[in-house]
Structure formats: C-alpha cells, structure tokens
Design brief:
binds 2-phosphoglycolic acid, 252 residues, alpha/beta, 14% strand, 8-stranded parallel beta barrel, single chain
Length: 252
Amino acid sequence: MRKPIVAGNWKMHRTADEAVGLAQAIAPLVGQSLATCDVVLCPTYTSLGAVYGVIRHSGIGLGAQNMHWESEGAYTGDISPAMILTSGSTYVILGHSERRQYSFESDKMVNRKTQAALAAGLIPIVCVGEQLDQREAGRVEEVVVGQVRAALEDVKGDQAPSIVLAYEPVWAIGTGKTATAEQAEEVHALIRAFLTERFGSENAGAMRIQYGGSVKPENAEELFSQENIDGGLIGGAALQADSFAAIVKAAK
Ligand code: PGA
C-alpha cells in the first residue's frame, strides 16, 4: 500500500510572516491525518526557514519549489540542493509547468535536477503534464510518458521508490478546470505502466503519483480514491488552511 502524499505548492504567495501564519493555521488541522497521509508545505525560498520553525516537530514535511542541479558556483539567483536540505526541507518540486513555461526548463534540466536531488537525499516531486492543444491532438501519452522518461533517465531502480511524480495537466492548473477522476486515472495508469516497465513492478508499485490541477475539497475525494492516484499537489486551495486540511482529509 502506498501512503498518499498531499503537498501545498504556495507558488509566489505569502511573505515570511504570512507563511508562518498559514503554517500555524494548517498544523493543528492536519495533525491527525499524518498517520495515513504525508503532508508537505512548499513555501517560497525566503520562507523555508521560518516555516520550518513552525512545523519542525509536527511531522509535516517541508519542500522547496525549485533548485539548481549544481552543488555550488556562479549561478546568481539560484539555490543548491544542500541549501535546500539545510533549510529543513526534505522535498523539492521539480519541473513544474510554470517553470517549464516561464523559465524555459527543459526535460534535460529536470533530469539533472532530479538526479541532484536524489544524490543530496532530497525527495523530488517531479511534475509532468500535457497542454490543452496536445490533449486535443491525442498526444497525452506521448507527451506525459515522454516527460517522465526524460526526467528519470539514468535513475536506478532502487532510487525510484523515493521519487514522487505529479501529473498536472497544464490546462487544469489554476483554471478551475479539473480533469475528471477518469481522465486523471487514465493518465496515472499510463505513467504506472511505464514505471513498471522501467523499474519493475515492486519499485514502480512503491512510487507515489500525485494529481494536481484545481484540486478542491469538493473534488479531492473522488480523485484520490482512484487506484493510481496517491494524493495531490495543491496550488490555490493550499493557501487557505481549512480548504487544504479538507483536501488532506480526503486522502486516506
Ligand atoms: P492549482 O495549482 O491547484 O492552483 O491548480 C496546482 C499546481 O500548480 O501545482
């Protein structure tokens, strides 16, 4: 049995003080769910340390939203795996569609980052997902499995179980349009089939695949009850403690 994982991707929202307040509001609401669901908060870099101060003894995990693959160097504005680890984070979101779109991250970069995260002992949450025109052209499998294949190139079978994937159809992110549970499960099953072929059924069976894209308290339970959906990566609804907690409760 895979333990579901629900992560809040706070994107470029909340100053450090506001992030502390949000974490303080969330912590007591999700405490009882932690036995059956991993919960992760992903604030901006500048709030990682402050949020860690709130959740360090709570069992809630901390994650960054991006990182560089190099361990140090002349990369102005970037952050290394060790910097993220020492902020108290154990997770890092990689290859989010907004980074692919606005910061031109390629599959190759996502692969480098994934390898660097694993080498540093961070759990990568690797995001994949098709755009609307790609779905309409019948290219979902080609695009999504292609992104997974590229992101996990040279990853070894025994590393696979510590990777989390997030299937986030780009047309469903922040739009209020959620994939139906059937649409999402169909793609999750394709991803699982690829992982099984690539890493063997035991390793693939241990890998968690989150769904993301307009997850709300109203649709979370149906999505999370699908066989291959192991929790969610939550954007907008993660910015309110009560809606985030309701989504966490839907993942059992
Ligand atoms: P959303 O974002 O829940 O606001 O659609 C999800 C994400 O981008 O991770």
